[in-house]
Amino acid sequence: MRLFAHLRPALHLARCELRGGLRGFGVFLACLFLGVFALSAVGSLASSARRGLAADARALHGGDLEVALVHRELPAPARQYIEARGELSAVTRILGMARPAAGGKAELAEVKGVDAAYPLYGEVRLQPAVPLAQALAQRQGRHGAVADAALLQRLGLQPGDRLLLGEGEFEVRAILAAEPDRTFSALSLGPRLLVSQAGLAETGLLAPGSLVRHDYRIRLPAGDEPQPFIADLQARFPDAGWRVRGYTEAAPQVRRFLDRMDTSLTLVGLVALLVGGLGIAGAVRGYLAGKVRHIAAMKSLGAESRLIFTAYLLQILFLGALGALLGLAAGAALPFLIASLAGEWLPLPLQPAIDGQVLALAALFGLLVALLFSLPALGAARRVAPAVLFRGAAGLPTHPGRTIAFAVAALTLLLALLAVATSGDRRLALWFVAGATVCFLLFRLLAAALVRAAGRLPPPRRPAPRLALDNLRRPGGPGSRAVFSLGLGLTALVLIVQVQSGLDGLVAENMPRQAPSFFFFDIQQAQGADFDRVLAAIPAVSKVERRPTLRGRITAIDGVPVEKAAIDSEVEWAVRGDRYLTYAAQAPDAMKIVAGAWWPKDYGGAPQVSLSADLAEGFGVEIGDSLTVNVLGREITAQIANVREVDWSTLQLDFALIFSPEPLRNAPHTWIATVSAPQAQEEAVFAAVTERFGNVSVLRLREVLANLTGFLDRIGAAFRLMGGIALLAGLLVLAGALSADQHRRLYDAVVFKVCGATRRDVLGAFAAEFLFAGLTAGAIAAVVGTLLAWGVLGGFMQVDFVFRPAIPIFTVLAGAAVTLVLGLAGTARVLGKRPAPYLRNE
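User: That's the sequence. What structure does it adopt?
Assistant: Structure tokens below.
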């Protein structure tokens, strides 16, 4: 009971203090609001997107479950069995070149052939609004088609015009506005062209070995769940070699993307919250510094230290809850606002709702940070002595006490553990905690070093720089706080911009110099020699590579099914679906074998495979181990003969799996080729191939890279926004520090003016002080942010780091400009004050 005896008077005292208003807590509330808003907004958006995916899972998946095959259709016995258990819809996907029937340039399209049952869930939206079956129906011997607006724009067509696809001619009946089973992709190879299954069959594109995917969607009777049906299907057809997934696994790539974005943006939001913690610390310390005599008076009248500590702690908790609630409200409202304003244009369904877990976690982070950065000042206030009443100057003690120091350490550890425990990527979260800790310690040391360095410099001859140095090395001056707060915010922004710039440079600069100009797909075996002759007749073509290609799915690693194998997360992509593979008798030119040896040129023994080094390391296999791949429904188990080093970033024609020829030579397959040519001659190459081979699909690397660059830029915009919030928090901290120091500048200005200084002299002294602090903060942020970006790109992402001097130079100038503007904005008011009233008080 004695423990809580002081709680009631503490509540009364806190209420009385709060009646005086919230003056001095503007930075406190703003910093906490920004941090909590960033965390709750990211979490709420990700939660709304996941909820939308779950609500539309069947529509996105196309059915209750899906059976997917590559190169081949569903066997008749399996089709009959499925049709007896539920409603079946068949979808065929292939790349094809579409061209205007009246003549013109061809364009690559993602062709999708659907049957009369499509879609089993959801609806296809067309412009004009006509039924899909009517739009795709055959009229007067010609099938209909609907296409993305982008494809029609490229071809110069509109509804009512005709286009050619392979050997078939189609009439465009409508513009495809939305498909229920389509989600966004970072690498879009072409706009959508939707036709009927019967129309696609007449194009001649579905030749044996063509890179075609058959998806069979099943709608089960009401109440039936897919998992029992999947188990029964796999048991009845154990050697089918298909991939079966239920609707709960809809859009797995989108889900993984959301998880990674959620994790990454949440950590950047934590940066904003931690930077804002400096503003919280400054606001609390400034408020309590003004209460020192008040606290001393209460202690003289018998108030215990515990009572004073609890009273002010309750105020901080109340204000922290207020700032957190405002941030939570804004963050929770953001998905509703986005859905109402831009819901129809979003690439994935968004179903806004209040997510209590997300908001509770954001509030917990906010309150922990508020408490963590407030405790040192609260502990110092607890140690104020009554004797302060009899001293001429009063300030908070410098040390909060051992108990508070221990509590700060415990809260820091708790915050780090919470960040790691709630992260979807523990490794990334651990790196974040380590980096944040190093940055805080580093900037604390550098800020202290700045003050010491200013004290050791010889005094300049000119008065303005000399006064600026004196102000910087004065205890309690704003210089060290400016370096600490603004430097951290600028560092976060430099890191984000440098990383994005590095990724953009990888796509926009490095790849085009090394990558081929075109990829050509679905070259039939009988067309190979003719294809080579067509390209040999074009003098501008500098390099042609052509290899056989099939698609297969890795099913076992050294005898262990992939579902049970220990696979590194970096290479999980290799077992998520079908992969391109090839065979070769001889090792391709410029191949770098790092382990094992290539098989003899005339090798005809048991299957062997050459594996890329990243897969070998991620799978944990070595020479002599085995890999099992399902190709066209046949399980092929091959011994690993060698491991190759592959640089995927060059986009050269290479494969993760290269088999010895014997097991695949006679399987139905096509060829894939890459062609390199000067940009000025690319149109000639494109026209020569597309006019000669109507079935061959052409992928322009420049368009793919442009799409990828645009995708990365959109992702980068989200990170830049979060970095901007961190910088804004830093600016608030800086503004608070300069505002808190205004009384000192006011007194200095009065003394300077009495001693004969002009307004220009005073302004020059203050400007030199702010400029020096800003330049120092910007320079440190530029160096530290660049080093962190080098570590993230070179170490974490395995991407070559390219130093771009414009970013650090801009950071230095921005830091100086911001500090100068904010500092002089407050100083202008100071210069207009008359000296007499202040001198009378002295």
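The chain has four domains: 1-59+254-420, 63-249, 425-514+701-842, 543-676.
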